[in-house]
Each structure stands twice: as structure tokens, then as C-alpha cells.
């Protein structure tokens, strides 16, 4: 009761604040789909608690991202449906022939939510904050390729040599080496720009009011809930929604009750059996594929799987992915590859044989390491190479048998049901399994670690590089410390190749190397699930990037007086 009263009070204050600011700055031009005299529209978005502060440099949780992507913008952005790059705060950009120098021509007259004017200096200061040693930011990796970034991050220089703002409307960035992916990295949360004043306030702990340039602006915070309001000075068409609450889900039964009564407009990962949700809510229950992968990370540093490709292949072949997908009730699909199919379906392909030299590299590596154990159709019974009755393992091409080791199985984010099925499949195949608690994934007291990886940007390198590059062996993602020079060579060439078709073929070869080596064990491609009220469903764009990237500023409610749009 107390929570509801406080939230209503904040909504009232938000409305009063909105009217005051609107009058003080003068009336903004109404959006094409918004009638000036209509009743205010409130949208309640449930299931994303907002923990921690709202600094783009440190934000990693889905709740933080859900807020930041609505209040802030970067130089470039992605179309939420097609995933194509498009200008944002940069009106246009140029790339030199060497693919190392990027010149951004910025939009003029854009205002931050605190009334300050957006300039190139705000971008430069935001990127310096991202790299500043004392910031200890998780998102600084997006600038790793910028010339002078490493020296600045170590405190060796006072400026980033590859970052220049020759005038308030121009930003120039030079890279240490060519990169075909730099623009894609600038679509991630770390590249979102806040006003200099609000960013410094967040950094110094003096406030929690981030001011960006997005279609919504921060209004108030209550516990794990955040109230946003429509930005009347937005550079594009203003949103139809006046107020947006991004809120923590209550107890499961309460969440469904609130949706059924119309108290909540959208619920992410609605609790309950998917089939029951479909029967009860029909088309209001929506599931679609996103760029996420559930996997088992393999410990390549120590333990029985390190250096033993035979054991790793046996583990990969032991798990019934079709059964795992069944446990999720359609919220996951069987994965026999690393890069989600939703990405591969939209990627171009080069000539059949790909770039010169790459097939020979792949062929040599495959011959040395054996075939990809997941190349065959997904298995439904224990592989024949495991002698389950005697719990012994026979190496391919060898007559020597030995006892199967005990595998330490840990978990970061997979459901208990999925983990129980994995343990059961391994035990049926002859392994002894010990469930271990994992407090720090960098401390490899495990042999297999279950977790889900969501792409930072919709491109294969967000999986192949982030999860398996040797340069990430001590970084978030590659907790198994996988290292393979041949793999790194093919992947590195891909990430520098400007031709999209050739780059994708190199990615496919790198992926095949990783699967052949069982660098990790893919389990399921992620599916997003939501409940959405029927009046909003017609204008909701389902983004492959998932819940935090849903373009709520495009929503137009069906049948609401005073609002016009495609959903009417």
C-alpha cells in the first residue's frame, strides 16, 4: 500500500513538473500522432528492476539499459527491426580509405534534458570518462582500438591522441588499426551521451538525474522503479506516451493479476507455463528470437577438460538440446552453433570458397583436431564412444580405457530445470557430476559453467570475439581462458575485413574452428517472451536485440481518444 501511494505521488509530481517545464521553454511542436488536448498516456513496463546508477560507462544490467536507451543517444544507432546502422546525434559521418579515421558531423541545435546544448565537447568528455583510470568502467572496451586510448586509461597521458573536436559540430576519431566494426560498437550503451553536468553529478555521487537527448527524460526514482516522461524538445517526432514507468516485477502471481486487470501494459519474461499463458492471453503472449545464447563455458585452464579434446567432444555430444528447449516451453531453440541463427539469416555471404588462404587454414586445423562434434543432427541418446556401463572413456583411435572424471558443474544464469537436465544427460553418458557454487567465475573451481550471453551489438564478433578471443582470456565472457592462435588469426582477419561478405565467411570459419575444438558448448538460442496489452500490440516493433531495445517511443495505442497513428 505504501509503495502504491508513493508511486502515485511521484506520478502527480512528474505531471506538475512536466507542465512547468513545458511552459517555461515555450510550447514544442506537437507530434503528428499526438493531439494537444488529449488525456495523458501512461505506459507501465514490468520486469526490469533498475539497480545501480544510470551512468552509461558502467551500466550492464537490462534494467539500466532499458532506461538509458530511452533517455540517451549515441553518435549512431541501430534500427530496432532491421538492425541497420543509422545516424543519431551524428547527422552524417565519413570514413577514410584506410578505415582508421572517422569524421562525425554532429546535429546542431540538439538540447539535453537539462537545457544545455549538445556539442562535440560532450562526446569527447564522455569518452574520456569511459577510459579514465579511476572510473573503472565495464564498457570501455568499445574504445580499445582508438589511438592513445590505452595510454590514457593507464594514466600515462592527459589526452586521448586519437580523439579530436576541431569545432563544436565535428568529432574526429583515429584508430590504431583498421576496424570494420567500430561504428557498430558505438551503438552500445557505453557510447550513449549524457550532458557533461549530469554525468559529473552521477560520477561524484551527487545526484541520480541523468540528462540525455532521447525521446524520454528522467523524472523520478522509487526503489527499483524509474519514472520517465516524454521529452517535448526531442529532435524527432515526440512520443505518444507521456509517462513511462520501468518497474520491478512483483511476486509472480501478482504480476499476472496486474496484467489481467490492465494495471501493467507490458511484462517481460512473464512467469508461468508458456502453454498456459498462450491459452489464457492468446496473442497478447508474444515470443520471438533474439541475439542471445545459453551455453556451457569450458574450463581450458585446469581440470580434466583442459587439453583433452576427446572429453570435451564427449560432453558436447552428451547433451540433448531438443529436450532442453522443451524444458523452456518454447523460450529457447536448440543451438548447434555459436552465432544465433537470427544473425546468420541477415548476414551476407562471399564467394563459395571465401577469401584466399582461409580454407587451407581451416582444413589444416580441422585435420589436426578432428570433426565438429555438433555437425551431426542433434542427438537423442548417449554417444557410442562412451562406455556408460563401466564408466570408462576410450579415446578415438586408441584401445586404452580409463575412468571418466568427475565434472564440476556450476551455474551463473541458467534455469534450475535446464541445469538439472544437463547434469542428468552427463550422468546418463557415464560422467559423475558434482554441482558447485560459483561466486566468482574468474576463479575456475568449475569444469563447466552455465550462463547466457546477450550480444552487445548484432554482429558475430559479439559472440566469437567476446567469448573466445585470447585477448579476452582474463576479461568478462571468456572465463574458461580459451586460447587458440589459429582461431585468433582467422577471427582477427575477419574483424579487419571491410567487405561484409568476406568478413562473414571468415566468421563462419572461425566458428567452425571453435566448435571443432569444443571451445564452449552451445545449448540454446534465446527467445524473448512478453505479455503486451492488445491496444499496444499493433504498433510494437519486436527487436532482435530484445527487451531493452523495444522502441517504445513508436508506440501508438489503438482506440484511445486524441491519439492518431497506424494502430488506430
Describe what you observe in this structure.
β14 and β15 form a beta hairpin. Strands 1, 8, 9, 10, 11, 12, 13, 17, 18, 19 and 20 form an eleven-stranded mixed beta sheet that branches. The protein has a four-stranded antiparallel beta sheet with strand order 4-5-7-6, covered by helices on one side. It is an alpha+beta fold. Helices cover 29% and strands 19% of the residues.
In short:
The protein is an alpha+beta fold. The protein is built from 17 helices and 20 strands.
Keywords:
11-stranded mixed β-sheet; globular; alpha+beta; 17 helices; disordered N terminus; 568 residues
Q: Which range best describes the helical content: under 10%, 10-25%, 25-40%, 40-55%, 55-70% or over 70%?
A: 25-40%
Q: What would you call the structural class? A: alpha+beta
- Shape summary: globular
Number of E-type strands: 20
Query: Overall mean pLDDT score?
Result: 82
Beta-strand content: 15-25%
- Describe the main β-sheet briefly: 11 strands, mixed
Q: What is the end-to-end distance?
A: 36 Å
Evaluate the radius of gyration: 25 Å
Low-confidence stretches: 1-36, 350-369, 375-400
Q: How many separate helices?
A: 17
Amino acid at each position: 500500500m505504501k509503495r502504491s501511494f508513493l508511486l502515485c505521488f511521484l506520478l502527480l509530481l512528474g505531471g506538475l513538473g512536466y507542465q512547468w517545464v513545458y511552459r517555461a521553454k515555450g510550447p514544442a511542436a506537437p507530434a503528428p500522432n499526438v493531439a494537444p488536448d488529449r488525456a495523458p498516456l501512461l505506459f507501465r513496463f514490468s520486469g526490469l528492476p533498475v539497480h545501480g546508477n544510470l551512468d552509461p560507462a558502467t551500466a550492464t544490467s537490462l534494467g539500466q539499459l532499458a532506461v538509458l536507451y530511452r533517455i540517451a543517444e549515441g553518435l549512431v544507432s541501430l534500427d530496432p527491426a532491421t538492425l541497420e546502422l543509422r545516424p543519431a546525434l551524428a547527422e552524417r559521418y565519413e570514413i577514410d580509405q584506410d578505415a582508421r579515421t572517422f569524421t562525425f558531423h554532429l546535429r546542431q541545435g540538439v538540447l539535453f534534458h537539462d537545457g544545455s546544448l549538445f556539442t562535440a565537447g560532450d562526446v569527447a568528455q564522455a569518452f574520456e570518462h569511459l577510459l579514465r583510470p579511476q572510473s573503472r568502467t565495464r564498457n570501455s572496451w568499445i574504445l580499445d582500438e582508438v589511438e592513445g586510448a590505452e595510454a590514457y586509461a593507464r594514466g600515462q597521458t592527459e589526452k586521448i591522441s586519437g580523439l579530436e573536436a576541431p569545432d563544436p559540430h565535428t568529432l574526429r576519431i583515429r584508430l590504431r588499426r583498421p576496424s570494420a566494426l567500430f561504428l557498430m560498437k558505438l551503438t552500445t550503451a557505453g557510447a550513449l551521451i549524457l550532458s557533461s553536468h549530469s554525468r559529473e553529478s552521477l560520477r561524484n555521487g551527487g545526484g541520480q538525474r541523468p540528462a540525455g537527448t532521447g525521446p524520454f527524460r528522467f523524472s523520478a526514482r522509487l526503489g527499483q522503479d524509474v519514472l520517465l516522461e516524454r521529452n517535448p524538445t526531442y529532435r524527432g517526432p515526440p512520443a505518444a506516451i507521456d509517462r513511462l514507468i520501468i518497474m520491478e516485477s512483483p511476486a509472480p502471481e501478482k504480476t499476472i493479476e496486474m496484467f489481467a486487470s490492465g494495471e501493467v501494459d507490458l511484462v517481460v519474461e512473464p512467469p508461468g507455463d508458456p502453454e498456459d499463458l498462450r491459452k489464457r492471453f492468446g496473442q497478447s503472449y508474444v515470443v520471438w528470437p533474439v541475439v542471445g545464447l545459453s551455453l556451457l563455458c569450458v574450463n581450458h585452464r585446469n581440470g580434466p577438460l583442459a587439453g583433452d579434446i576427446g572429453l570435451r567432444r564427449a560432453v558436447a555430444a552428451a547433451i540433448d538440446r531438443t529436450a532442453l528447449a522443451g524444458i523452456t516451453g518454447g523460450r529457447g531453440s536448440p543451438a548447434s552453433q555459436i552465432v544465433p541463427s537470427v544473425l546468420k539469416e541477415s548476414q551476407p555471404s562471399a564467394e563459395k570458397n571465401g577469401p584466399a588462404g582461409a580454407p587451407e587454414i581451416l582444413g589444416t586445423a580441422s585435420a589436426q583436431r578432428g570433426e565438429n562434434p555438433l555437425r551431426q543432427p542433434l542427438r537423442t541418446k548417449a554417444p557410442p564412444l562412451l562406455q556408460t556401463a563401466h564408466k570408462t572413456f576410450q579415446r578415438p583411435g586408441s584401445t586404452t580405457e580409463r575412468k571418466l572424471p568427475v565434472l564440476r558443474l556450476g551455474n551463473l544464469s541458467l534455469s534450475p530445470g535446464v541445469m538439472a537436465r544437463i547434469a542428468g544427460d552427463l550422468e546418463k553418458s557415464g560422467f559423475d557430476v558434482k554441482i558447485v557454487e560459483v561466486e566468482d567465475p574468474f576463479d575456475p573451481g568449475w569444469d563447466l559453467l552455465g550462463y547466457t550471453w546477450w550480444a552487445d551489438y548484432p554482429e558475430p564478433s559479439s559472440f566469437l570475439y567476446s567469448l573466445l578471443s585470447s585477448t579476452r582470456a582474463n576479461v568478462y565472457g571468456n572465463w574458461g581462458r580459451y586460447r587458440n592462435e589459429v582461431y585468433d588469426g582467422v577471427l582477427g582477419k575477419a574483424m579487419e575485413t571491410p567487405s561484409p561478405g568476406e568478413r562473414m565467411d571468415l566468421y563462419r570459419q572461425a566458428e567452425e574452428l571453435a566448435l571443432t575444438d569444443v571451445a564452449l558448448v552451445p545449448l540454446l538460442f534465446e527467445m524473448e517472451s512478453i505479455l503486451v496489452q492488445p491496444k499496444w500490440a499493433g504498433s510494437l516493433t519486436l527487436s532482435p536485440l530484445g527487451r531493452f531495445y523495444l522502441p517504445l517511443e513508436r508506440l501508438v495505442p489503438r482506440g484511445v481518444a486524441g491519439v492518431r497513428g497506424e494502430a488506430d
